Amino acid sequence: MAETKKLHVALFPWLAFGHIIPFLELGKRIARKGHQISFISTPRNIKRLPKISPDVLPSITLVKLPLPHVEHLPENAESTMDVPHHLVPYLKMESDSIPTGGSG
């Protein structure tokens, strides 16, 4: 029988817990299939995640990616729950300014 190839999946959800939690659940399901997950979010959002069960914890790496500060956002604004609705576009600007390391 051919060996099943294991994947390493990176998940980087939008900075709203309505996206973060479903992405985490997806990551846990993928991890239970034997794949490795890198779950990427801001340090404060990572701290606010629900506990990950021990059966999948070894397959999930939580990657803390600090955001560069953007004018008009309060200090420590790392998700939509941290800002009033009218400041959410600045949060998008903040997340769009994350260096990707690409050459393009």
TrEMBL record:
Biological source species: Morella rubra
Top-rank taxon, per record: Eukaryota
Segments traversing the membrane: 6-24
Name of the protein this chain belongs to: Putative UDP-rhamnose:rhamnosyltransferase 1
Keywords: Membrane, Transferase, Transmembrane, Transmembrane helix
InterPro entries for this protein: UDP-glycosyltransf_plant (IPR050481)
PANTHER family hit by this protein: GLYCOSYLTRANSFERASE, UDP-GLYCOSYLTRANSFERASE 91B1
SUPFAM superfamilies according to UniProt: UDP-Glycosyltransferase/glycogen phosphorylase
MF (Gene Ontology): UDP-glucosyltransferase activity
